[in-house]
């Protein structure tokens, strides 16, 4: 029985074996018991109760007894396996039964139950038939339910697919897809902004820590300079050159290892195998490498990775850090792709350090494709080809040509490009990947030709065969390396003499060969590149002295910091403007915005009303509740802008002003002003103040009365001048002007003069005429003009009447203001019922008072809140611009800036090259 249990354990994955062995267990147990029982009966002369005929029956082909009970056992086992899924329960029972059989025979026999339990467990007759039918029906019903569910799922899938086939559904799908893409773009932008803020905070934190240490030591000392490794110094030079000369047109001919190959050929896996860490994201057939990734390998005590523009180190021995590193690489790649592009030229620079790593600099490029998918940009294929040629065109670049060994060599696209850039193969190393698959698919002689350089016309310095994985995403580098070593030890290709040489296999041999070649080329070319940069620096310095002899060469960063300081100084000057100047500017701006409303909607309608004071109260209250607070806030904001721009204009006129900052300053101010908005609660506060002020209807003293009269006269004169100007344009020049300037009237101007002459008659007849003409008056004017031969319509007369009456009304208002100048005491004695109507003076006094309290509130708001908020927004804009190199290049431009930038970069690179050469010579 133990043997049967072990068989179940070995073959528990096979359903038929389990069923058969379960039946064997039941039969074996029964045979063991009843054989012993019958033997006792025969020895004792007793009866066998009819059971002996079953246990003495013939045995099966494997020696197992086949009693009738076996059929019942097999049925029970099948039911338990198919319907109730209890195969492991049977397994546990079988093992438990095997352990039980190890007991002593006598104890086991005494514990046996009566034979009647067999009839209860396996009933015969109709009960067993009903039980079997019920189980069979239950199993079939379960099977039907499963089939129905599968059918429904398939039907739903089919209906969904069919529904998407029509145009409307396709449009909806495309719209949803576009929304998803937009959301992804927004998420990337938010992540970019978050990362910039994080990097900014880290930078500020480092500066604060450094300042703290300096203050703590109470002396001015710089931080100790950490000695960098040779490969790190070289990598920094390459990073500087990437930004300086991206077209290799001048001096960027320094060596680097360029990893090229067809898409999914395994080039990223080769790089990971050399770096001894799975640092790149993975995808099933999807293009994952969307931008060049420069990986600097260096030996170190810990296996870590770090991006060039970040201080964070990723522990490559921790799976959590590896996952975060891969996500960060994928995020940077997707962030570099803008404007609907699929690939980008922006280089992602990172450093990987660890024990046993070969020192070198590798650049992983997007894989070359032959066919584009619908989700790729139209120029993806050409962009990848141009990018690959761009990197391989460096005459000192080492080309690591990756060929997929599991596909036909004739399908490769990369070999032709390599032959174009390096026809003699002086800097090409050929790598055949997926050799484990190639061994099963390809002819050994064909592999021998590939690795001996006889299959392609392409030539190379060396040919290598590697295995970089088993097709499993979760395999570690250690597992892959072990698999690679085991494969080449047991490979038929490796053991066949002359097919593959030992030094041509494994990623370890490949990395050592590439590193040796890399440093050999570095030593051969570094002096030449340093001399080239030295000559370039001399030429640029000569050009600067000839063009800008009195100026120091300042780059964009330095110029930006200087402009930033000047802008912040002007913000400080904004807070130093005196209160009187603020109130004068606010009052002027506020009345300029309110004057038209006061005259058109309050003063003129109230003057034409029988109850002037009541109408004024109603109009002023409506004005204060609706538009006055918002107009006041708008005036305050415009005054703040005007004053700030005046300070900037004043700074421009100073002798020390530099025009190179003008575009930047204007852009910063415009952006800050665009973002700035006045606090909402200011409107509610002003509404309360203005309503309370307008409730006062009595002028308190003679001084205020005189100020109100002066305010009325000034305002009326301004409106009168505007009206005179309008009439002058309508009527044409006067007789003296026509004579002296040789001008004449137009036909329309002549008509206007005739119409105005008739309208003046009406106003002379009735000086208190209403602002509108009656129908009879319009008819009379038109008939009088017809007698003079002038044909005009009613609308033409009304258009001429409006400025004519306006001038008449304003002249009367000016006379009333003159008469009311000395009527204050009559006003105080009789109140508003004065013999001389001075209600318009009171109206303008009330308006003057509300302007005064509004300007005072706005001034306090500007000084205490808005100027500080504007200062904060300007600083935020400056911080954003400081991180945006494109924006700085756009706003700080010109020959002076470009020449200074180039000179600074060349000088910096040349100094780094000399430092690297000194360290390289010391290492020798």
TrEMBL record:
Magnesium found in the keyword field: no
Keyword Transmembrane: yes
Keywords: Apoptosis, Coiled coil, Disulfide bond, GTP-binding, Hydrolase, Lipid-binding, Membrane, Mitochondrion, Mitochondrion inner membrane, Nucleotide-binding, Transit peptide, Transmembrane, Transmembrane helix
Protein's name according to its UniProt entry: Dynamin-like GTPase OPA1, mitochondrial
Membrane-topology descriptor: Single-pass membrane protein
Catalytic activity, reaction form: GTP + H2O = GDP + phosphate + H(+)
Subcellular localization(s) per the UniProt record: Mitochondrion inner membrane; Mitochondrion intermembrane space
GO cellular component: microtubule; mitochondrial inner membrane; mitochondrial intermembrane space
Gene Ontology biological process terms, A to Z: apoptotic process; endocytosis; intracellular distribution of mitochondria; mitochondrial fission; mitochondrial fusion; peroxisome fission
Gene3D superfamilies: P-loop containing nucleotide triphosphate hydrolases
Family matches, as SUPFAM superfamilies: P-loop containing nucleoside triphosphate hydrolases
Gene name in the database record: LOC119635950
Coiled coil: 166-218, 860-887
Any Pfam family the entry gives: Dynamin_N
SMART domains: DYNc
Ranges where the Dynamin-type G domain occurs: 251-527
Enzyme Commission (EC) number: 3.6.5.5
